[in-house]
């Protein structure tokens, strides 16, 4: 099987921000063990910024200035990679660094190149170690944490399992730090709003993930036909046992029965939305029950200044996201159409999002 293992900054580095060589060694030994059983592994690792902070002696507070964080990542990434080379090398494994930016998933050509490189690395027996290319990533659209990038990588290499390793045992019914009654959720089929709310906000000083971002990543993976395990990075043999899907390791999020096509996955998750369209009940049921295209006439209201072919979220009248798709009409033309100042291509019955470009997300 193919496994993507994601480690966050708080797992890769210790309390003082220095790289935790013991953790990397433990991960490397497990990766060697699962490779001996014929499985393939890809590591997605954060920790560049945290290592950069530590190297430059910035210990009290994480800077908020993006250019500083980008510079820190440049300092930390090489150190992080040196640590992975050492840890994996100790078990006779060879690491290969791959740095990706959001654009690499948005631009189809880049996406295919990234896939080809990863496939080749796996074929050569190398362990790809992926991080976001923080030093150059566009600040508007950068992923901010590696949970999402890990899910997109799992999709890219058609992984069987994505393991999101973290500093908690998994997803809890409420925040275990404040609620003594919180219990571990061992299996999830559908990521509900209740769970998302329980997952709360962002993570620690050293990283920027948190459980909410893990659930979002798990959702991308499950739509991609990839099972997910969210578990503690310090749990012994977690990767080895995850390959056998041992229960009790953490929280499993099951893959969806119907897997989206590569193009629809790309529309739904690789491409950030630039607007929101609220649709009336008629349009909602046409989309959900009959897989219809979205017509301009079904639009209740919209926001954002999207252009033709831009991705937008489709929401019901309660603001709940029901779908995402590529619009055929710009916001400006849609405005004209809804004001009935129409030309043929802007009539209210014209298609705003064609069914082929529309991904239902409920
Ligand atoms: N790619 C970042 C890193 O490796 C993500 C974590 C962050 O935003 O702090 O450091």
Describe the structure in brief:
The chain is of the alpha/beta class. It is 38% helix and 19% strand. Helix 7 (146-156) packs parallel to helix 9.
List keywords for this structure.
38% helix, single chain, 2 domains, binds glutamic acid, 362 residues, Archaeosine Trna-guanine Transglycosylase, Chain: A, domain 4, alpha/beta, Carbamate kinase, 5-stranded mixed sheet, 19% strand, 8-stranded mixed sheet
CATH homologous superfamily annotation of the largest domain: Acetylglutamate kinase-like
Catalogue the ligands.
Answer: glutamic acid
Helix proportion of residues, in percent?
25-40%
> What topology, given as strand order, has the largest sheet?
3-4-2-1-5-7-8-6
List the uncertain runs: 203-208
Kindly name the structural category. alpha/beta
Overall 3D geometry? globular
Assigned CATH class of the largest domain: Alpha Beta
Number of strands: 15
Distance between the termini: 28 Å
CATH topology of the largest domain: Carbamate kinase
Description:
With 362 residues, the protein is of the alpha/beta class. The longest helix has 24 residues, at 66-89. The strands form three sheets. The protein has an eight-stranded mixed sheet, sandwiched between helices. The protein folds into two domains: 2-263, Carbamate kinase, CATH 3.40.1160.10; 273-360, Roll (Archaeosine Trna-guanine Transglycosylase, Chain: A, domain 4), CATH 2.30.130.10. The protein starts with a strand and ends with a strand. The protein has 13 helices and 15 strands. It binds glutamic acid. Glutamic acid binds next to helix 3 and strand 4.
